UniProtKB/TrEMBL annotation:
Keywords, ordered alphabetically: Hydrolase
Pfam families: Hydrolase_3
A molecular-function term among this protein's GO annotations: phosphatase activity
Source species of the chain: Spiroplasma culicicola AES-1
Alphabetical list of CDD domains matching this protein: HAD_Pase
UniProt superkingdom: Bacteria
Descriptive protein name: HAD superfamily hydrolase
Length: 274
């Protein structure tokens, strides 16, 4: 019996035009009416989750959101205010280590600093940095080893594929978590880097413990590399049709495309028996 549904956002919950479809909203509401808890699990920051959390009823029902790939676990209280449950960040020394290696390997970085208004970049130009500044609302500061004073929830590294691959062993040596974020072209690559042991699965397990919900009672929807471990762990791990083949292979179930309300399709099938 499912007692908790956890949902990735981008490529999973959101449909066309980055909106939650009516079908997904209706299915989530119907699941909640059967006393099933709903949780968001995303790489986004909390501020970018709030409108979606409101739309699918998480705020009104005082439920949890997992942000920044597990770097932040939060709950909306009875006054609908966001409360910090747990946060895990890179130390300042870790941030410097990542950036120093990025400089050495000629790749750019964008950090989700503890200060929600700032980020460190190596070069403050280019489409990648422009896009990240736009979606995050953070002001970019060019990295300086001597002036760096911010911890970070996660760092996104971008550059030529060969340069990213050259840098990864340095990050792996520290046991940082790394997830493929996107491939901009055949020659460029993005990866997300998180602190040791911090990922969506880690945070999902924390939320499950709070609710006293067992592994087999968890249903997880996702499409990305950062969803794979949670999909494998959940009693019902669901990969979207638009997910890469290795994500689908990790899942116990697959569902429709995120633009075709795939979340609703599988909730209707497994939970609502439609």
């Amino acid at each position: 019996m499912i007692k908790l549904i956890a949902l990735d956002i981008d490529g999973t919950l959101l449909g066309s035009r980055k909106k939650v479809t009516k079908q997904n909203i209706q299915a989530i509401k119907a699941a909640r009416e059967q006393d099933i808890k709903i949780c968001i699990a995303t790489g986004r920051s909390a501020s970018r989750v709030e409108p979606i959390a409101r739309e699918i009823g998480i705020i009104d029902n005082n439920e949890y959101i997992i942000c920044l790939n597990g770097g932040g676990i939060y709950q909306y209280d009875k006054d609908k205010k966001l409360q910090k449950i747990k946060e895990t960040l890179f130390s300042i020394d870790d941030v410097k280590y990542i950036y120093d290696n990025a400089v050495e390997n000629k790749i750019n970085c964008f950090s989700y600093n503890e200060d929600p208004k700032s980020t460190y970049v190596i070069k403050n130009r280019g489409a990648f940095i422009w896009f990240m500044k736009k979606i995050s609302g953070r002001k970019a500061f060019v990295y300086d080893n001597q002036k760096t004073d911010q911890k970070a929830y996660k760092v996104i590294a971008y550059g030529k594929k060969k340069n990213i691959l050259a840098a990864k062993p340095k990050f792996a040596a520290k046991n940082y978590e790394m997830f493929s974020w996107s491939y901009v072209s055949n020659k460029t690559m993005n990866i997300e880097i998180s602190p040791v042991g911090v990922d969506k699965l880690y945070a999902l397990q924390e939320v499950s413990k709070i609710y006293n919900i067992k592994q087999e009672e968890v249903m997880y929807f996702g499409d990305g590399d950062n969803d794979k471990r949670a999909i494998e762990w959940a009693g019902v791990g669901v990969a979207m049709k638009n997910a890469a083949s290795h994500i689908k292979e990790a899942a116990s179930h697959t569902t429709g495309h995120h633009k075709k309300s795939g979340v609703a399709q599988k909730i209707n099938e497994i939970i609502l028996n439609k």
